[in-house]
Amino acid sequence: MIIIMKTGYDRQELDDVIARIEEEGLRTHLSIGENTAIVGVVGVPIPPELQSSLETCGGVENVLRVTKRYKLASREYHPDPTVFKVRDVTVGGDAVVIIGGPCSVETEEQTLETAKAVKAAGGNILRGGAFKPRTSPYEFRGLGLDGLKILDSVRAETGLPIITEVLTPSDVETVAEYADILQIGARNCQNYLLLEEAGKSGVPVMLKRGMSVQIEEWLSAAEYVMAQGNPNVIMCERGIRTFEIATRNTFDISAIPVVKRLSHLPVFADPSHGTGKWYLVPSMSLAAVASGADGLMIEVHPNPDHAKSDGAQSLTFENFAALIPQLQSVAKAIGRSVGVETEVSIAD
Amino acid sequence: MIIIMKTGYDRQELDDVIARIEEEGLRTHLSIGENTAIVGVVGVPIPPELQSSLETCGGVENVLRVTKRYKLASREYHPDPTVFKVRDVTVGGDAVVIIGGPCSVETEEQTLETAKAVKAAGGNILRGGAFKPRTSPYEFRGLGLDGLKILDSVRAETGLPIITEVLTPSDVETVAEYADILQIGARNCQNYLLLEEAGKSGVPVMLKRGMSVQIEEWLSAAEYVMAQGNPNVIMCERGIRTFEIATRNTFDISAIPVVKRLSHLPVFADPSHGTGKWYLVPSMSLAAVASGADGLMIEVHPNPDHAKSDGAQSLTFENFAALIPQLQSVAKAIGRSVGVETEVSIAD
Amino acid sequence: MIIIMKTGYDRQELDDVIARIEEEGLRTHLSIGENTAIVGVVGVPIPPELQSSLETCGGVENVLRVTKRYKLASREYHPDPTVFKVRDVTVGGDAVVIIGGPCSVETEEQTLETAKAVKAAGGNILRGGAFKPRTSPYEFRGLGLDGLKILDSVRAETGLPIITEVLTPSDVETVAEYADILQIGARNCQNYLLLEEAGKSGVPVMLKRGMSVQIEEWLSAAEYVMAQGNPNVIMCERGIRTFEIATRNTFDISAIPVVKRLSHLPVFADPSHGTGKWYLVPSMSLAAVASGADGLMIEVHPNPDHAKSDGAQSLTFENFAALIPQLQSVAKAIGRSVGVETEVSIAD
Amino acid sequence: MIIIMKTGYDRQELDDVIARIEEEGLRTHLSIGENTAIVGVVGVPIPPELQSSLETCGGVENVLRVTKRYKLASREYHPDPTVFKVRDVTVGGDAVVIIGGPCSVETEEQTLETAKAVKAAGGNILRGGAFKPRTSPYEFRGLGLDGLKILDSVRAETGLPIITEVLTPSDVETVAEYADILQIGARNCQNYLLLEEAGKSGVPVMLKRGMSVQIEEWLSAAEYVMAQGNPNVIMCERGIRTFEIATRNTFDISAIPVVKRLSHLPVFADPSHGTGKWYLVPSMSLAAVASGADGLMIEVHPNPDHAKSDGAQSLTFENFAALIPQLQSVAKAIGRSVGVETEVSIAD
E strand or H helix at C142, and its extent? Predict the structure, then answer.
């Protein structure tokens, strides 16, 4: 931690700052400049609240943290990329993982039909929401447990692992019985009790970035999961909130390489929520893969114009199937593969 | 709902849009312009997913909702302002309510001392966090149940009603036993299951605005509480996330009159979180009251430089006590009063 | 300047950083921690480009500036508030200055009528745009020189000083012949050649904050004017761009006390552009004054529903006249006065 | 234009709205719903100020524009993509154009050396700033005319066309004598007089997106250039301002396909400013090409750690040269080529 004193600070103020630091059993390292002084804090651990405390001291201009707020999620702590298996799908490896499926599980037929289309096109994992967070209480909120059962039966039939969202700590146990990956949605990115419960479940967790969550905060949220002994976290960029209204969110593709530099965790991207427009999903999927994404999550629906949620950002089966070979070409261009056709592509 | 067709749409596309609408048992009203056509949807109810569905149809430029996503929270539904009592404190009336207290309950002594200072200065309600959401898992997360018990005993001694945060649905029952107002924090503004559980408790709820939550979404979140039969919701502006880094958040004071125009619910403001800087709290408190806020929530701590959380945005007892008379002057200037000195002020 | 080395940096990297700094004739002050090292730069002047240079060096985590990017505009350089006269109106003094008038000068009659209404209500200065920046080339762009002549004749008749916008350096000389204050609009906040030309004119300058300009950048923009020998700069908050769509901009009232703390310059507020809604102007005007604004700029039009620009955010004469006494009450509550009725109010 | 009346509007208010519209020689189309009424405006032209006027009318909830604010820049007006030549470089064709070079022209040697490296690596066009907009007046502002002369001589020696920034209308004539493309920077995106002057010059214009400019506003800015008879405009995404601080800006790659859908103009991307970090430039370049960008503008410097501006976001010659083949692979994957190696790549 570094404390920068105001121009014109007085000696007593500086002494008070030093005393406040030493009170925590830490030492200081002083650098007196022309107009200001800089105090470095030496020693560990630095109590997290010390920054805010020092900001209240007279004569202090600014207090800067030097260390990160997360540890287990950091590259320094774990230099090699995290790679793990979800059933037979490798996450974080060379092959870019494709998750496809409807926003919401509506019926068994719709889910099965979509799963088959996803699989046929080369997708690896099925998505489908059984518990849906909705902006208004008057919107469709999912089939709940019945939705989970549909996912289970579709998995049995197609062999695709499933990812589905969990909304609240008390549901984690139930959802974890069915899901191969627990999805934590953007609105719950900083729902810390949910993160911890998901961590305890031992099931891999996909943590979507909150709409206004900075990357350091997002990795700190992942730390909540990991601190419970669960190392299998997928970070998923899904768009942030900005002033632009042409898209539902601003899909922050640069977050992908930034997180990969700061962390060893695999990074996925959700171009469906990232843009909110089905016609932007193909180009943004290609861009995400080109930038280094380890996976994509794409909404697919048999009839987007009759979807119970998010139809406007869902691909039809045809559009999804047409996208996969394009993704494979781009992935190949950067030395990776996409989806289940991996070996074939490489053999090409 | 209004559908605007693209320039150059073709007749079949328009017919498909009309057919999609009629499929829901609704009628259409057509307006053919020079280059475009506009389709109005007539009838109720309009299924919430119809907007997204229509956006997928060929030839559609844009689909606009006309009706709001909330009803119980709207001025149209309930033209008179909502006024209710929290013990002997009137919320939503002419008197601006002052909530003061520490970010976190740390010890009984700290809490009692602060409560007494808040009361002596003219504050109405004591705040204090027992369950704290923290960005990093390595920060102080509150005393939990022990914190609630401290608040209870301090209430018994000072007579101040208490507001404290609840983080997760399974805690609502316990927190509601102690709290006079349940606080839902910014990170949980769209935690819908928590909102519903708080709604069911019957205890008044203060709903803080999420960091990137638009006003319509915020009122829709309030709707979740109200739809459970709990009409006593306080909206609390606490700053939104923007590009500006001189303040912790951008305190959106204009949200106060906007919400009061759209809704009958009382609107409070939290200048401590709104700015993140104790030295901005007085001016922003005055501004919030001048703009029509029905209450303020201000962090107060006996020793901000030793607070376990948010010291940098907490007022000392002296600064808090000095602020109240200024607030009273400004309130009086707009025909209102502040805090418990109401009758005296009016008698003035 | 402070350089924070990455965890795991090596000694050669640190030596390279030191060498790069010493190459500029500066010295370093080293603090070696457990996992990182911190290098302080000692000496002056530090070349502005050094920060970016050091960010490219191997092993560097972060480079932080300690000194501000502006000097003449800073409180440290000029501790007392800047106060100056615009004809007989004192700017930056105890009295809050009221600027009123139409967005655009449309006709002499409209301008004169408005000026009289502004003056009668207690306003100090007349605003009116002759050169208008418009988002689309197909919108009304002002009367140009004819507009300036109208303002001149209205000033002669009413005695009100005038403020009007200048869009481009080559117009500064002409506009400065007519204007008592040159207005630099939000879109030109970082149009540095315009700022310098306005600085050279010697005429007081009102510098509106750009829509996405951070406060430090805004003060650096003011520095461009001041560095030309023109100390009479008014900072004007007019709303920033955020994700919220209920208002045209988010009116950042906290910028007022922040700028007043960092700088000696007077700070005004423009609630008309700040909100974009006439019905929010009164409450936001009161809030701005309560927060410490030294002046307000408010759009007033005889017939907002026939204004050639910005009708939606313009007050009618009646609404403007009704607002002034409310402003005076709030100003009095914080020990200030408003507009020309100052002495009377105080005598009250 | 569509006017939505408030719930509970009265008949007189509706009649007033209709009268206001008819006053402009337009007709209305009325749709009376259960709780509201919707008024469509029929006829052309609709005066741009009518929207704001109608927003002031009693009983009006909302006024929506249906038509875009730009015409010449729109796809509807010009369905085929705009393709033009800059010397022998085709802009807007199948080959992705690579612009490389230093942020600022510092010396002839630095510029020539960089141009040769750019050319050798396969770049098409040289960038270099002679007139630099800088946040603080104390930073390096470019060599001015001397910089233009250096660019001219380097072009003569290498054959690379040049792009350089113009800051103010009175410089357009001079800069246009030297530049093959006039660059309008982000801060000047809405400097309308500069846009018009650049339009009049007849030289192709690259229009960077302003930091907080919405896509519709950006296209309206391009309209200013085009309305002067200059059809050769390149749109360049360079990052927008958001709450994220890990990057200098948030590089909005989705703007590329959005603009290409709305407009026929070629769209470039500047990953150097878009991210502010040299180590993010390669991945973001790949992403931009994958998303459909027609060109890239990349900062390249012989010694980024000694650059007079923007060193932190500049590639070394080696990193630039290493990037081009990767870009070619990705471009090939989507059926395009990159830079001057076009024919060879295709012959592959």
Answer: none
